[in-house]
Amino acid sequence: MAGDGGPDGPGAKGGWRRTGSLDEFLAAAGPFLRSRPALHTVALTVTDGLVRRGLDLYGDEPPRFGWHEAPGEVPAALLWTPPFAPMLIGGDEAAARGLARVLAEAGGPAPGGIGARVEQAGAFAGEWARLTGRAARRTFRKRLYRLGALTRPTAPPGRARVAGEGDRTTLERWHDGFAADVGLTVGFGAAAWADAGLARGGIRLWEDGGLPVAMAVATPPAAGAVRITTVYTPPHLRGRGYAGAVTADLSARIVAGGDEAVLFTDSANPTSNGLYRRLGYEPLADFAEYAFGADPKSP
């Protein structure tokens, strides 16, 4: 599938072009993604990982890409890295419904869901349900924040430091604890996640009494933005200010490096939303994820 709007013929369908070529996708949609690095942070870090580590980064099934064309611009893009659901980046509700129609008519593997800004995700999910008869259920709603002026909290006892190889067992355990807390698959398995974070020096720990008590993780910089992920404190150590301290430390380092700091929260979690607002993070956009039920035509 290359630059085709479908698996077989040339040209765009419904304004959408699809391809299996990462190079072709980045040539067409890369300027659009880089035009708003904070808002497009996930797409930028995912494509950066695919460039650096190969198209099999997330599994054996090849990624799929696409972009929506309008006169003189690319206002939306599709990034689908199985086994994860497709991401729709940008566009309006009409473009979202158009993408649902294109994928429904394309044949081949059907998406198990969709992730996009709230309005676009809802439009895609509604159209997909109408076309396929598969029920659409919203599974997650999250808010993207961008750091304004950092306000450091009163620091708890201890200090921040970069994680090292000696922290591997703790990191892998905390990775799984974070995944259980949020109820989501967090990228790779714990060992591969720790490998990548340690290799780039992107995991910050707060240490108290010589022991790590909290962590925050930074993605590699992409087009001038760095996303903080996997902020975690073990349950028996919560409520002591460790998460705020390590997040503030990592945020300050990102800004000092000349990048914007961004992060996501679960919109329904008042604790995390309150914490990041106190640190100076400001809401940028709301996103939703939907899962699709089984095909009613299946045996």
UniProtKB/TrEMBL annotation:
Name of the protein described by the UniProt record: N-acetyltransferase
Matching Gene3D superfamilies: 3.40.630.30
Domain N-acetyltransferase residues, every copy: 158-299
One MF term in the entry's GO annotations: acyltransferase activity, transferring groups other than amino-acyl groups
Pfam families with a match to the protein in the record: FR47 (PF08445)
Keyword Transferase (UniProt): yes
InterPro entries the record matches: Acyl_CoA_acyltransferase, GCN5-like_dom, GNAT_dom
Organism: Streptomyces gougerotii
Keyword Aminoacyl-tRNA synthetase: no
Keywords annotated in UniProt: Transferase
